[in-house]
Amino acid sequence: MTATYTFDVFSSLDGFGAAGGNWTGYWGKQGPELLDHRLALYGEEQQMVFGANTYRAFARMLASSTEESEVRDPWVTRMRSLPATVVSTTLEGSLDWPDANVVSGDAVDVVARLKEESEVPLRSHGSLSMNRALMDAGLVDRVQVTLFPVITGQTGLDPIFQGAADFDLELIERRTLDGHIQELIYRPTLHV
Predict the structure, then answer these.
(1) For the chain, what is the domain count?
(2) Which residue range forms the structural domain that includes residue 96?
């Protein structure tokens, strides 16, 4: 049996994973339901998978944060305590992450092997280009999009699915958090 792989991503309505300008983290829309749900989600036994750029961004963000900043939300602290694999051809040595290891090679090959060997589900938060390649290779079992009620047409950064193949999506779960944030979980199938 292979482990389930979830591509977990935050998005604006227009499909951006982040924004510049005066937007804050979570686009300033987070509330207690979202934060409690994320903590419960990351409380489950699982293994994280990151690309090198996302790992670097998380490590840099967490290193520069304080205990009071939203970066240190309990779910992020919990995510950091989970075992993690960082797929990279450029990182070497030990990582500033409690239980992480670097695996060199092509992400498709690495994740295919992880899916076969892992006894727990696999999850990746972010790592957009890596996860687009994994989707194209048929390795993503679930796409979990947390949709924030904003449009960042002028300031949007990191288009989530830019350059991805075409996919049909089967909605398998949905919920509304804090009255305005949508969490949508899909099973992707390559559109042929």
Answers:
(1) 1
(2) 5-190
